[in-house]
Amino acid sequence: MRIKDHYFKKAKREGYLARGIYKLFEINKKYKLIKKDDRVLDIGCSPGSWTQACLRMEVSEVIGIDIEEAKVKASNFNFIKKDVNKINSLELGQFNVVLSDLSPSTSGNKDIDSKKSFDLSLKAFNIAKEVLKKNGNFLVKIFQGEEFETLLKEIKKNFVFCKSYKPKSTRPSSKEIYIVATGYRKAI
């Protein structure tokens, strides 16, 4: 709980909506996914800490999608309150970066929860394949489970670089891990 307390307090003190912002800052520092003037799709954006991070990185625009209301107000942030499964991604345009911090409602059964997480992560990946520009970058959260390696291998086929990463700000007991992918090989 000590880590939770530290990052939770730090986020509140620095005016961020959630502790998850430090995960994105750490991942971006290491892998350079998001650059100034990028157009970013933030799937599962609520409450909006990853959007806050993107805006701080001076992206040109963030489109956020979630079933819960986002708490970010900015001229270059557009929010779509909708289930990701009901989005027509082709209407969103093209993006330099797609982020997904989607999380299922958990049941307490790790096998069921990891399967739900896989399904959401796969949906995010399918959206990314439709909307990413060539050489674009993708970041997706998934719970570790049987399906993790399947998704990792599938993503690797579509990007120049791909690996899993667990940020330091992730709770030690958490089963979540991130797949970082850069250099989208867009089919022409």
Describe the protein in words.
This protein has 188 residues and is an alpha/beta fold. 33% of the residues lie in helices and 27% in strands. It is built from 5 helices and 7 strands. It has a 7-stranded mixed beta sheet with strand order 3-2-1-4-5-7-6, sandwiched between helices. Helix 4 (110-131) links the parallel strand 4 and strand 5 (132-143). It is globular, with a radius of gyration of 15 Å.
Quick structural overview:
The protein has helices at residues 2-13, 21-31, 49-56, 110-131, 148-156; strands spanning 39-43, 61-66, 77-81, 95-100, 132-143, 159-165, 176-184. It has 188 residues and is of the alpha/beta class.
Q: What gyration radius follows from the Cα positions, in whole Å?
A: 15 Å
Q: How many extended strands?
A: 7
Largest sheet: 7 strands, mixed
| Elements, N to C (H/E) | HHEHEEEHEHEE
Estimate the strand proportion: 25-35%
Topology:
Blueprint: H1 2-13, H2 21-31, E1 39-43, H3 49-56, E2 61-66, E3 77-81, E4 95-100, H4 110-131, E5 132-143, H5 148-156, E6 159-165, E7 176-184
Parallel strand pairs: 1-2, 1-4, 2-3, 4-5
Antiparallel strand pairs: 5-7, 6-7
